[in-house]
Amino acid sequence: MAGTADKKRRAFNFSQDELEALVQAVEDRNNEIFRNWKEVADSVSVVCGMLRTVESTKKKWSSLASDANIRGVLQRRDQAKTGAGLPEVKPLKLTGGEDRGRHGSSIATGTEVGRDELCEQKSGEVYRSTLSDPESRRVILTLMDSECDIMNLPPAIVIPSPAKKKKHIGLQEELLELEKEKLLVMREKVNIDKERLQLEKDKFEFMKEYLKNRGNNIVDLYEL
Asked: Which residues does the UniProt record annotate as the domain Myb-like (predicted)?
């Protein structure tokens, strides 16, 4: 009874056979993948006789790489238990027989892998495993791109601390004072230029009156 209850409770989880059927169905429908998801869902449903909707099948395909990571960890764990013998967990293979369990290496070794690096790693492995089938590579990379787009979250908003904010305001006030002083210097320079121009005008008027009193004009002066 307990076993039956557990089986019913796990009925909504995709089995290994269903995952294999999903991968095979996608590869068999390269060009029609985006408009024939209904056929893909039906192919998966036939395996266990349970109806899989288009939405659930597409969602499972988009997360298949993550599932492969988990299976890679479970596979190595079982190999360690059995002395590196045959694992209890069947490795999940994608196109070209490429073992997607290798994606779980970062989890096993504790190495942190960024989102961009993970997406590049997936794309590189798909490229190597589908060199003889460009169309298959295009379809799978398109699906992976949609997965990586979901993983890319907006950057966090950084709120400065009160001390940094106060320091920033102080620097802005100092810059404002410097600009004010620069403006005063420029105004003084303009005033000096005005005074110099006025002196030139006064000098010109003086010379004109001087020449007029002597019965000459400016033109005669230049002709001399």
From this structure: 6-65
